[in-house]
Amino acid sequence: MPCTVTPRASRLVLRMRGVSTSMMWSDGGWGSGDWLAMVLTMLVLWGGAVAVIVWAVRAWTNPRSRDGEPKQPDSPDDILARRFALGDIDDAEFRDRLEQLRKART
Fold this sequence. Notes:
Elements: H1 7-16, H2 34-61, H3 76-86, H4 91-105
């Protein structure tokens, strides 16, 4: 009669020989600090991803010139000249408003 070994019997024999019957890694459970390492690694990875996204958004939306200095707001003279160049105001209105601006500064 052939000798048949059931799965339960084979696990019992392996345990008696000192061989683990669980998966071959980690011996079936978390070690003393493995869970902490996993949590810290995930925090570092997610924190890095968020930091890169924040940096990218700030870099694209920050109004800076090419040399890295913040852009200065347009002066009233520049705004008036731009409106004149775009045709929003005519020559007489431009000269009148420019005269008013110069009087207000003195």
